[in-house]
Specification:
The complex is a heterodimer. Chain A is mainly α. Helices cover 79% and strands 0% of the residues of chain A. In chain A, helix 2 crosses helix 10, helix 5 packs across helix 6 and helix 6 crosses helix 8. Classes of the chains: A mainly alpha, B alpha/beta. Chains A and B meet through helix 7, helix 8 and helix 11 of A and strand 6, helix 3 and helix 5 of B.
Chain lengths: 256, 249
């Protein structure tokens, strides 16, 4: 008991050493005159962030006062919509590509040749097609999550143990039953891998504020925004892992 | 009438050169008979079982079960796989009732039977366990219970006890014999273990490799029901020696 708590204490201490050094160096460098407007020190970022979160809006010229929560809500909503859409299309499509030779030959070349295009390269196309706000953002988030989800689901569906398929056929399962009673659950671990990787690609969420703040020279808000994206991303990943552990109990027992 | 009738059956896999997995196979199994296919790895015994199961199609020849040509896998021919092949995300109970359920049967039609079959294989207390929580022998018990629940009259067993330790294997062989005595299904049991073939089967088909052929068939001169004591009998050792000599050639 004593050693475990000592160990966890040790882990916490070791884990914070590097961040503290980074923060100290950042503070020193950011406080120099020639860094003004380029790299604000952490204290200034915190101050800006604090105002962004708790400030009362409408008093004065600062458009960021008190708007943090609504920005986060707004972005989370779009992230959720785009990501949900990516999973909704990506999982069934991946299952079918992995399962049917015909579907694979139809879709695989398209997906494999679109996949190397970085998400940022889609930006002009997305703005032209959907405009700068909701639809454009949702489209980019969708794209960011889609490939990882589809590719991993395909892999999972393709790697289903042959004897599991044979066992199901032997017991009288139809093609459709095979797909959702055997291939889908067997591919579930890969699907969750896809969701987690896709989740990382998705975090373009608070992006609008990011560019907006950059254009008006508010680097403290830019950095606070980046930190917000990081925290939101971390929480999203934890949420996916939490659901994964509920759904994949059999898998977790297997690896022990 | 034979339950399973195989006539001039060939299975060749395309390639350069093509692989002749099975050549000129003739095999007849009566209803309720328990036969063993015995041979070294690569002799095509598993291929033959896969053909009867309908997982693969023969290149030539006829393969009748109950007088009809085998077209696809189906619940009339239950397969017990080498590694059990249970669905790891389903509990023991859900694995056992998978067949009746996908066939659209109502609960009332299969629940009693499933309980009974789990009792026969001795797993009544493990219904809610996941396969991963069971030992290898217990997983094979589930594999047997699920095809009994399916109501298969033909059981196709592909080295089901090959991966088990010697003691568990013996227990499972005894279990299989008692199930067979009670329900009298037709069983094709694939194995490379001579002792296992003699202990279980009424008739042993010895196969040779490249190309896979049936070399001889031997009737096992042991009565029923059999017990472990039979494995120490003189008849047993004499037959074992005879088969060993056959396989050496």
């Amino acid at each position: 008991m004593a050693t475990t708590s000592l160990n966890s204490l040790r882990r916490i201490v070791l884990g914070v050493i590097v961040p503290i050094i980074v923060l100290v160096v950042w503070q020193i460098v950011g406080s120099r005159q020639n860094m003004a407007g380029i790299l604000p020190p952490p204290t200034q970022v915190l101050e800006g962030w604090h105002g962004w979160i708790f400030g009362s809006p409408g008093l004065g010229l600062n458009p960021y006062l008190g708007s943090w929560l609504s920005n986060v809500q707004y972005s989370s909503m779009r992230v959720a919509q785009g990501f949900f859409l990516a999973a909704l299309i990506g999982v069934p499509l991946g299952l079918l590509i992995g399962w049917s030779r015909l579907i694979q030959q139809l879709f695989d070349p398209v997906i494999q040749s679109l996949r190397p295009i970085p998400i940022t390269a889609w930006l002009p196309f997305s703005i032209a097609m959907f405009g700068i706000r909701d639809m454009g953002a949702i489209f980019l988030i969708f794209l960011g999550g889609f490939y990882a989800i589809v590719v991993n689901t395909t892999q999972g569906a393709r790697d289903v143990e042959r004897n599991l398929v044979r066992a199901a056929l032997m017991m009288g399962a139809s093609k459709r039953q095979l797909l959702y009673r055997v291939v889908l659950p067997a591919a579930m671990p890969s699907i969750f891998t896809g969701l987690r990787i896709g989740g990382v690609a998705v975090k373009s969420g608070l992006g609008y504020v990011l560019w907006d703040a950059y254009y008006v020279g508010r680097m403290d808000i830019v950095l606070a925004d980046m930190a917000s994206i990081g925290i939101m991303g971390f929480l999203t990943d934890r949420l996916i892992v939490f659901i994964e552990q509920k759904v994949l109990v059999w898998r977790i027992l297997q690896s022990h | 009438m034979s339950h399973i009738a195989i006539n001039k059956l060939y299975k060749t896999y395309p390639g350069n050169p093509p692989v002749k997995a099975l050549e000129d196979i003739d095999l007849k199994v009566s209803p309720g008979e328990l036969i063993a296919l015995l041979g070294p790895s690569g002799c095509g015994k598993s291929t033959l079982l896969n053909l009867v199961a309908g997982f693969e199609k023969p290149s030539q020849g006829t393969l009748l079960v109950n007088g009809t040509e085998v077209q696809s896998p189906g619940p009339d021919r239950g397969v017990v796989f080498q590694e059990a092949a249970l669905f790891p995300w389903l509990s023991v109970w859900e694995n056992v009732i998978f067949g009746p359920k996908v066939q659209g049967m109502g609960r009332g039609e299969y629940e009693d039977r499933a309980h009974q079959m789990l009792k026969i294989v001795g797993l009544s207390d493990f219904k809610h366990h996941l396969p991963v929580q069971l030992s290898g022998g217990m997983r094979q018990r589930v594999g047997i219970a699920r095809i009994l629940t399916l109501g298969s009259r033909v059981l196709l067993m592909d080295e089901p006890f090959g991966a088990l330790d010697a003691q568990t294997r013996l227990t499972m062989q005894e279990l299989l014999l008692s199930v067979w005595q009670q329900l009298k299904p037709t069983i094709i049991f694939v194995t490379h273990d001579i002792d296992e073939a003699i202990f279980l089967a009424s008739r042993i088909y010895v196969m040779s490799a490249r190309p896979g052929r049936i070399q001889t068939s031997i009737t096992v001169p042991l009565g029923r029901p059999r017990t472990v004591a039979d494995t120490a009998s003189e008849t047993f050792s004499a037959l074992k020696l005879q088969i060993l000599n056959l396989i050496r050639h």
